[in-house]
Amino acid sequence: MKPEKQTSKSAMVLYRPVGLVSSLIAGLIAGKIFDQVWKRATPGPASDPPGPLETEYPLKEILTAAAIQGAIFAVVRTIVNRGGARAFERWTGEWPGD
Known about the structure:
Layout: H1 9-41, H2 59-92
């Protein structure tokens, strides 16, 4: 088990803008990945993912799209946020979380 690193308040405050920017980037990346996954999963003219208020799609398809999108977003956000935290630690010598 790795020893826990102490985080100062200043590191947490300084990391907030980095965390915000990395979350925005993660959202953009996740959206692009989801669009590509959905296009490959549903080839044809209607390759755009269904929205929750589109009546021409069955609820099952809308829920499937939402579940896939949520999973992709969670994984990408975790990867980007963890990478941002590690880069912050390399630059400052302090871990921004905990």
